[in-house]
Amino acid sequence: MHYTHLVAQTSKIKGTIRNAEPKVLGTEPDKHVTSGAGGTERHRASRAVLSRREKEREQLAALRKHHEEEIDHHKKEIERLQKEIERHKYKIKKLKDDD
């Protein structure tokens, strides 16, 4: 009799566990599940998104600065080469004039 009572209780518990709906963190509307650190999971997730966006902005700013520096370098190189072209043109003209 004692054994059948335990079996009945065990099957009631198993049935309750099988029929229980799984709770997913943060899926219930207007309810915040607090984490061990004291903040909500939604707050933590939004901070992570903001942090990622800030990092992306910093990376884009660094990339933009790098490209601007490259453009400036190329402009200076173009000026240097144009001066060299003019110098060679002058030498050619001088050689023609000497003939």
From TrEMBL:
It is found in: Mitochondrion. Residues 18-55 are annotated as: Disordered. Gene3D superfamilies: Single helix bin. It comes from the Eukaryota. The keyword Transit peptide applies. Keywords: Coiled coil, Mitochondrion, Transit peptide. The keyword Transit peptide applies. GO terms for cellular component: mitochondrion. Belongs to the ATPase inhibitor family. Endogenous F(1)F(o)-ATPase inhibitor limiting ATP depletion when the mitochondrial membrane potential falls below a threshold and the F(1)F(o)-ATP synthase starts hydrolyzing ATP to pump protons out of the mitochondrial matrix. Required to avoid the consumption of cellular ATP when the F(1)F(o)-ATP synthase enzyme acts as an ATP hydrolase. Indirectly acts as a regulator of heme synthesis in erythroid tissues: regulates heme synthesis by modulating the mitochondrial pH and redox potential, allowing FECH to efficiently catalyze the incorporation of iron into protoporphyrin IX to produce heme. Homodimer; represents the active form and is present at a pH value below 6.5. Homotetramer; represents the inactive form and is present at a pH value above 7.0. This is Uncharacterized protein.
